[in-house]
Amino acid sequence: MALSTQPYKGARDFYPEDKRKQNYMFDVIRRSVEAFGYEEYDAPILEPLELYLAKTGEEIVNEQTYAFTDRGGRQVAIRPEMTPSVSRMVAAKRQELAYPVRWYSIPNLWRYERPQRGRLREHWQLNVDIFGIAGIEAEHEIILLVDSMLQAFKAKRSMYTIKLNSRKFTDYILKEYVGLNEVQAYSMSKLIDRMHKLDHAQFLAQVDALCAQSQRENGAVEQLLDVLHAKRFTALPQQVQSHASLLGLKKMMDMLEGAGIHNVEFDPTLMRGFDYYTDIIFEVFDNHPDNNRSMLGGGRYDGLVGLFGVEPVPTVGFGFGDVTLANFLELHELLPTIPTETDAYAVLVGDVFTPAQKPIAELRKAGLNLAVDVTGRKIGAQFQTAEKKGIHYVIIIGENEISSGQYTIKNLQTGTEEKHGIDRLVSIIKDYRHLEDDKD
Ligand code: HAM
Hints:
Blueprint: H1 16-34, E1 39-40, E2 46-48, H2 50-53, H3 58-64, E3 66-69, E4 75-78, H4 83-92, E5 101-105, E6 108-110, E7 122-131, H5 137-152, E8 160-166, H6 167-177, H7 182-194, H8 200-210, H9 213-217, H10 220-228, H11 238-241, H12 244-258, E9 264-266, E10 280-286, E11 294-300, E12 315-321, H13 322-331, E13 344-348, H14 353-365, E14 370-373, H15 379-388, E15 393-397, H16 399-404, E16 407-411, E17 417-420, H17 422-439
Parallel strand pairs: 1-5, 8-9, 13-14, 13-15
Antiparallel strand pairs: 2-4, 3-4, 5-7, 6-7, 7-12, 8-10, 10-11, 11-12, 15-16, 16-17
Helix pairs in contact: 1-5, 6-7, 7-8
Bound molecules: histidyl-adenosine monophosphate.
Residues 81, 83, 111, 113, 119-120, 123, 125, 127, 129, 294-298, 317-321, 323-324 line the site of histidyl-adenosine monophosphate (HAM).
């Protein structure tokens, strides 16, 4: 039986046109985060499994991690997320780094998930984290950065909503207001995290089942639902409205409003899966009716660096996957057509392979990306190849051209042909390239 040409389930092949699209997204991302002073770092794709056992969360570790035993008997995982790795790196240089540390990375991550729209088994994830700021200035900067990155993709604020909540607030609600014990509160937070995937009756049945008889009789379920159904701070039960954890959230929302970011909402049902978040958490939702889902998420996690035996460092960050970003850009028609990196295609006419090397070398030295047709086929076939590859210009190199130093250049889009010396050819093609660059 022939081998399958399909990639591994839930993973992607990147043909050049796919990779171009991804490179475009990463270019915009890099420019946006570097504009805020973030520096790029990286880490190994393999990590000891124990790195994720402490705080990543049961679902990811037990059900979604690609883990194996290496030849030396060590338990290893392919990284399902970057946050533990970056925390390890900061902890390793805890004393030497200049704070606040602003770092970003775009790692390829693997999770054994059920592949579906927006969710694959491998994805690339922008991670942006700021280490060393305990106040909400950190959250403010991170959300401002997210917003300005989406603007750099030409998104309008009506296309996305930034949702906020606080783990401290949820903790207070579950344990003090509703009166659940530690174990119940943990299970309830996981249930709320899945709330929007369940129908309401199913959700209610499970909430009910999690509470003890006495708690139910004391109105725990109703109390919880009153909070979860609130869409604004003022819709929360009076008694919980002034809890200290909400003050930071409110202040930050005011600051964001001040910066013209009005598409921010408080959402008490927002949980985020990971156990390491300690306070404000956020997600950005795509408002498109066909894709009304979360496309990035993050929050404050002040405890991870300290797990490595050093003094803790307050941290805020987020992850943004290439799959959800591409869906967002495609649905909102924000993805430009990305031209090939090849500027021109040299068509060789006659037996000129050897003498053509000199002008070819000159064109490349002048900075052109030039592919040369070395097949000796008829001119028509060579032109067709250039067209199929989406290359904009063809340069014809035959005996006459080489002896006169004047080459025919054809614009495959308009069909116009001109004859010029090398310098002029180069400037025509470079002008076109700059025009294309200016488009994005
Ligand atoms: P996360 O919510 O698991 O957070 O992932 C962040 C983003 O990565 C998601 O919103 C989504 O865009 C993308 N993503 C996650 N899993 C998949 C998947 N299976 N397929 C496609 N895209 C996916 C974290 O990973 C945190 N470590 C983020 C963070 C950084 N928090 C603080 N710093």
